[in-house]
Amino acid sequence: MNDKPIYVTEPYLPPLEEFIPYLEEIWESKRLTNNGPMHQKLEDALCEYLGVPEIALFNNGTIALLTALQALRISGEVITTPFSFVATAHALTWNGLKPVFVDIDPNTFNLDPSKIEAAITPRTTAIMPVHCYGNPCNVEAIQEIADKYNLKVIYDAAHAFGVQDAGGSILRHGDLSAISFHATKVFNTFEGGAIICSDKKTKQHINNLKNFGIASETSVVAVGINGKMSEINAAFGLLQLKHINNAIKKRKEIAQFYYQALRETKGIKLNFFSNQETRNYSYFPIIIEDSYSLSRDELYEKLRSHNIYARRYFYPLISSHMMYQNTVNMGALTNAQSVSEGILCLPLSSELSLDEAQKVCSIINNDLLPNGEL
Ligand code: T4K
To answer: What residue owns the CA closest to ligand 1's atom 20?
Structure first.
């Protein structure tokens, strides 16, 4: 039994002493929040790192999603995926919108574009796909449908930090993309998030919305919210950014190790990512098929008994939760249902050692553990 638990992810924390100068600067300036100097620097640094024109920082990814929907004045019904974290659908519901769940492609885990048109009604105003695990959606097909029916596209890009396709950042697609910088993400600011947009006018509108709708001392131009990122969070982001390439490199090493160790295991399906795009190695999903010696939940429990906390992201489907059950015809979500019942995300972070990854694989492969345990 390993004493140190192995979690699905562990945040990368740079050496504490590297953070002290940032804190001293904040203490000296007494500027704690509301678009302070750290906030401005992080926006500039992220635009450059990600290769995007405009980015508006937020206090978390969920408020970024809520605000993106407000910014485009989305109404009525929005087509989205049931195979995601609940925040995706909750952001719609909190805006008074109806999520319409459409099935996924079982090989990419993303919304299946060929199933979208059948779900469009006169009340549909937008599509909200998710780049699940940082795996890019079929953005061209989705945009084609959006153009044909005059729909907006808002990407839930919570997992997609640093992911690129042949033309550049995946975050440039659609009308807006919202990303998460939560502690469990590849790039984190403890809590945090952002909206990516293409022009300064939209960014100004989003900036107003995240600051109560305030445009000036005497003028409130919209019903806004408090979505601002604090200076401490922004400062931590600036420090993280210095280490991000190394952190992603370490994740890649673990992901490649898993791939080699598990690619021939009977009943374990992997390799869901195409080789073309630049990946961020945010998650390592496997599917436990019927031909594996244990069920998905038995393997999940077996790993737990060794202090290894793999996670069933995303099970149950969002559409199976009590508040969404009445909105959906479950029969139409066959792929999502079957993926959700077989999925397991293995521990993956820059903090995981190859020995720990080896232990995870030995348990999955039913090999002898390094300490002789079976
Ligand atoms: N859209 C999508 C597609 C998302 O996946 C998410 C969030 C959002 C939108 C919303 O973005 P945010 O508003 O969160 O910025 C976690 C995260 O809380 C959540 O951010 C994330 N998706 C989701 C997929 O995973 P839980 O409930 O599984 O987290 P929790 O607390 O069980 O943490 C998982 C493991 O990580 C723990 O077992 C240990 C480790 N951990 C966690 C934290 C918080 C640490 O080592 N340190 C930590 O500080 O939701």
So the answer is: 182
Q: Is 62 in the pocket of ligand 1 (CB under 6 A)?
A: yes
CB contact at 8 A, 181 and 191? yes
Asked if residues 339 and 287 have their Cβ atoms less than 8 Å apart, the reply is yes
Q: Does the beta carbon of 190 lie inside 6 Å of ligand 1?
A: no
Confidence bin at 2 (pLDDT 50/70/90): very low
Radius of gyration of the chain (CA): 21
Model-level pTM greater than 0.70? Answer: yes
Residue 183 Cβ < 6 Å to ligand 1: yes
Domains (range + CATH), the chain:
16-239 (3.40.640.10), 245-364 (3.90.1150.10)
Rounded Cα distance between 247 and 252, Å, is 9
Cα end-to-end span (Å), the chain: 11
**pLDDT (average), residues 145-157:** 98
Helix axes 354-365, 231-262, angle to 10 degrees: 50
Give the ligand 1 atom nearest the CA of 181. 15
Mutate to test the pocket of ligand 1, among 85, 308, 346 (most ligand atoms within 8 A of CB): 85
Q: Counting every residue, how long is the chain? A: 374
Q: What are 9's two structure tokens?
A: 């992810």
The backbone torsions φ and ψ at residue 180, rounded to the nearest 5 degrees and listed phi first, read -115, 140
